[in-house]
């Protein structure tokens, strides 16, 4: 199937052609017709399948077919979990809508709210926002959502992971009751289905991949290794493979800065991307990475959903994520839109239980590299030990409970004895 067969107008087809696309991805092929029919949708598609265009193109089509209104009012609201993702989604609307008269604005935290208010005062058809900044604007009465016809929750699972469920409900409460709702998610958990049942009206389900799976074109490998050897192995992989672009995920902000300094000392151009960086610094680092000015971008999970880099060849998990689902989102930065990619995880014995949870989630074992060039590390999870620990914990709870009861009984007895002595004393005094 080609984009010509999806009932998109000439301005959108022209923009698509200019981006070098001729065939829709599976999620686009399934979602676009449903959205154009005005139906609610629940789309479960793994990262890198083109789901942003899967809702951006039909929304642009529907909005462009309506009569233009002056002043412009917000008719489409897209909610995303992170600043980076908000910027990427906004960029997609601008790119695909460049030959229409539609206008898009993006708002998120970490930058001046005053400049965003000024842009909104000029009017916009489409608003892309993060929950926190959107609520700030609502509380200050600087934004009006009474004309919203289309509401999109993008990366809904990440929203729930980040604790945005209350904010989402607050936003929904101020939206018109009559609207079209679109819920897109990289993973398709029970929690997402619960949210969908509350938000969507008789939705059409679109699933182009099994729940919590990774793209087939991503080659995955595990390097069992000690923590003190991780940095040296990363430098060797980049140098030996002559890598020009690699995204490295770490667990903490300080860890990202530390690894960045170490790689710079090894002669590797890199930058760190995390929540302590200003929005300007984050934008600059991402731009330098996309343009090939730096080789390695070291990021915390805040960037796992917001980065959209064409043909990114390599992803390294320097630290495994604490939440198994985040592994899927991390490595989904590579192998996008049919391209091939490589995901490497450096795993210590202390992280073996995290790897176990990841493989359990995906229902597959990730191949191990036997010869890492370093001391052999065995990644075994002592299940019996875990069960024993649980038993010990229950025993401790019972012991503590018993101790509290004994203490309570002893206190009661002491209290009774004291009352008895006081009564005897009063009788003597009489």
Structure described in brief:
With about 425 residues, this protein is an alpha/beta fold.
CATH class of the largest domain: Alpha Beta
Give the strand content: 5-15%
> What percent of the residues sit in helical stretches (DSSP H or I)?
40-55%
Q: Whole-number radius of gyration?
A: 27 Å
How would you classify the helix and strand content by structural class?
A: alpha/beta
Look at the structure and give the mean pLDDT: 84
Shape estimate: globular
Low-pLDDT stretches are 384-421, 423-430
Distance between the termini: 105 Å
Q: Supply the number of helical segments.
A: 15
Counting DSSP E segments of at least 2 residues, the number of strands comes to: 13
CATH architecture of the largest domain: 3-Layer(aba) Sandwich
Topology as H/E string? HHEHEHEHEHEHHEHEEHEHEHEEHEHH
Instruction: Profile the largest sheet.
Output: 7 strands, parallel
Overall tally of domains: 2
CATH topology of the largest domain: Rossmann fold
Strand order of the largest sheet: 3-4-2-5-6-1-7
Fourth CATH level, the homologous superfamily of the largest domain: P-loop containing nucleotide triphosphate hydrolases
Overview features:
Rossmann fold; disordered C terminus; 430 residues; alpha/beta; 7-stranded parallel β-sheet; globular; 2 domains; single chain
Can you describe this structure?
This protein is α/β, with parallel strands linked by helices and 430 residues long. The chain has 2 domains: 3-207, P-loop containing nucleotide triphosphate hydrolases (Rossmann fold, 3-Layer(aba) Sandwich), CATH 3.40.50; 218-362, P-loop containing nucleotide triphosphate hydrolases (Rossmann fold), CATH 3.40.50.300. It contains 15 helices and 13 strands. Strands 3-4-2-5-6-1-7 form a 7-stranded parallel β-sheet, sandwiched between helices. Strand 12 (314-317), helix 13 (324-331) and strand 13 (341-347) form a beta-alpha-beta unit. Helix 2 runs parallel beside helix 3 (51-64), helix 3 packs across helix 4 (83-96) and helix 6 (131-139) crosses helix 8. The longest helix is centred in the last third of the chain and has 47 residues, at 383-429.
């Amino acid at each position: 199937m080609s984009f010509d067969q999806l009932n998109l107008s000439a301005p959108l087809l022209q923009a698509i052609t200019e981006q070098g696309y001729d065939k829709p991805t599976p999620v686009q092929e399934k979602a676009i017709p449903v959205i154009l029919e005005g139906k609610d949708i629940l789309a479960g598609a793994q990262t890198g399948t083109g789901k942003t265009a899967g809702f951006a193109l039909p929304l642009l089509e529907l909005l462009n077919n309506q009569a233009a209104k002056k002043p412009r009012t917000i008719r489409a609201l897209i909610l995303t979990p992170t600043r980076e993702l908000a910027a990427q989604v906004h960029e997609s609307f601008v790119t695909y809508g460049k030959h229409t008269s539609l206008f898009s604005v993006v708002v998120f935290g970490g930058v001046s709210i005053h400049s965003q208010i000024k842009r909104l005062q000029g009017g916009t058809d489409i608003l892309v926002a993060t929950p926190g900044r959107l609520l700030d604007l609502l509380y200050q009465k600087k934004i009006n959502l009474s004309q919203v016809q289309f509401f999109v929750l993008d990366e809904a699972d990440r929203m729930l992971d980040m604790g945005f469920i209350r904010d989402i409900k607050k936003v929904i409460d101020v939206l018109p009751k009559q609207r079209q709702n679109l819920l897109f998610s990289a993973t398709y958990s029970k929690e997402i289905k619960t949210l969908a049942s509350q938000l969507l009206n008789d939705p059409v389900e679109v699933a182009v991949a099994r729940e919590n799976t990774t793209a087939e074109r991503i080659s995955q490998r595990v390097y069992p290794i000690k923590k003190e050897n991780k940095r040296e192995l990363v430098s060797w992989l980049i140098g030996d493979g002559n890598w020009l672009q690699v995204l490295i995920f770490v667990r903490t902000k300080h860890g990202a800065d530390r690894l960045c300094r170490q790689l710079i000392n090894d002669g590797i151009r890199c930058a760190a991307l995390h929540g302590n960086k200003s929005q300007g610094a984050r934008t600059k680092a991402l731009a330098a990475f996309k343009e090939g000015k730096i080789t390695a971008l070291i990021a915390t999970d805040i960037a796992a959903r917001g980065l959209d880099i064409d043909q990114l060849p390599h992803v390294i998990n320097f630290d495994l994520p604490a939440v198994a689902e985040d592994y899927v989102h991390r490595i989904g930065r590579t192998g996008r839109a049919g391209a091939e990619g490589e995901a490497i995880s450096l795993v210590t014995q202390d992280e073996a239980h995290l790897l176990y949870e990841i493989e359990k989630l995906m229902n597959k074992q990730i191949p191990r590299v036997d010869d890492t060039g370093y001391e052999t590390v065995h990644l075994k999870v002592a299940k019996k030990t875990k069960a024993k620990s649980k038993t010990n914990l229950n025993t401790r709870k019972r012991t503590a409970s018993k101790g509290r009861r004994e203490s309570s009984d002893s206190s009661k007895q002491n209290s009774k004895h004291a009352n008895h002595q006081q009564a005897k004393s009063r009788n003597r005094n009489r």
